[in-house]
Amino acid sequence: MRHSKKGAPTNSAKFRAIKAQNGTINRMEQLLNLDVTPYTDKIIAEYIWIGGTGIDVRSKSRTIAKPVEHPSELPKWNYDGSSTGQAPGEDSEVILYPQAIFKDPFRGGNNILVICDAYTPAGEPIPTNKRHRAAEVFSNPRVQAEVPWYGIEQEYTLLQTNVKWPLGWPVGGYPGPQGPYYCAAGADKSFGRDISDAHYKACLYAGINISGTNGEVMPGQWEYQVGPSVGIEAGDHIWCSRYILERITEQAGVVLSLDPKPIEGDWNGAGCHTNYSTKSMREDGGFEVIKKAILNLSLRHQDHIKAYGEGNERRLTGKHETASIDTFSWGVANRGCSIRVGRDTEQKGKGYLEDRRPASNMDPYVVTSLLAETTLLWEPTLEAEALAAQKLSLKV
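^ Glutamine synthetase, sequence as received from the core. Prediction below:
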């Protein structure tokens, strides 16, 4: 009995500590979920921009006096470019220009996410601002007349936090060979579905034009699709969706990787296949327009490869549903080609093409604008066109 009495306070203290800890967590969650809309007109705007690597997303928050409906209603802002690799320390101010707004799925209410691009104080786009150049291409009357549509398939890999090894894989080891994981269900085949589903719903809430998602061929790898989106909107939606995915994986304690070949060996890489069509491609006779576009793309193959993501040479090997990085090819329903045309498009004589070359870490502003520029604005010489048509067996 004496032993029990001595032990009782210790157990009680532990219980009180756990209860207090849970109480603190609950109060934190209550504050995070607090809807301030009934109490103030003010909103929180999360300004998002692309950092110095060209692939990292940065953000910071700002209070805005009232809800807004258009980015033009938002003030410009600035940040320390010397801390993101985008400006020297002695002249570090970089200016953010709001360009697109989305509803904030994390804070809810009237709060927003703001996609920005970056400029010097003198108003010049900084080197990592790829949106500015893309906007110039998409504002060209010839491009606007063709209403370019994009459907982008963003693949990504989920990694365990401390070991940077794919989610669901044994640490330092490998799962069974590829085959059972693609679009699969089951605890031994699907790893990270909650993250994919949470991201799907968050994107729908935000107003991102997400059109689907699926588990990929390599276990721990997923894909979501955004589109069809018109012009510059495609890049804005992909960057915002990437930011949301970074935030969700942050909360889940999982690392997001956009590396195009995260695991060497007999494993699929991660791409960002870009489906593309113009008004002329979507109308009767569009297949001939698609063939002309493919011809142009073949002549600028190396220009596109240089702009399609870092480390892509590790992915584009001619294996694992890719074409060789050194050789341009196209085919109907062939996933081993640079450009794939769907069987549906061939049968209907109109539709779209799929550029399978972009890596998972590509900049969507660069890829979408380059596709439009090469197929709508760039004109090859007649000699080059004839040689390319012969080589690719294209009749245009």
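Residues 1-34 form one domain.
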